[in-house]
Amino acid sequence: MRNIDAALADANQAVRECLADMTAEGRTPISFEGCNPWSTPILTVVQHDAGPNWILVSHDGLRANAKLLPLTYTHPLRAGKPIVTILHTAISYQAAPPQIGMLMIYVPGWLASKRRLCQAHNPQLSDQVEWTDAQRAAWRELTIAYHHALDAQKRKKAEVQRARAYRARRADLRAAGQYTVTELARGAR
Predict the structure, then answer these.
(1) Which of 68, 79, 112, 169 could form a disulfide with 32 if both were Cys (CB 3.0 to 4.6 A apart)?
(2) 159 within domain boundaries
């Protein structure tokens, strides 16, 4: 009986260690430094401050880790066009009385790389800040929306890849002289 209890205790300990490793891996921030300029990472952020054309955000709620992001271009060629797009707001930022905001945003890859932004796969608020229950609930809502947005982004990329593969296969078949009924009806020979 003791051998079974010892084996069960060892198995439970191994499961706990494995889960702790998986949880830590999901919470480790991944840097966007060096990401493709044309990609658009989705980030969940805590908004600390705002100006007429900028927001100050962090990925964990610590103001020391906050980054300044421009909202629109100021260059004459693209003046007024958005850079950072706010997708979802869980809590709106208020300057007076001061209240932080919680947002989900699109950031272009070139800006994410330049500002050295990072985002964990399972974003977490810092334990160094006291959060209210409403803020924690809003963050949970935001992380659920974040995972839905990531899934939608993956589905869109997969659809684009399938369409490209289909067009490439059809081009190969047309080159071999094989046409669909629709192509024949439109005069392909």
Answers:
(1) 112
(2) no
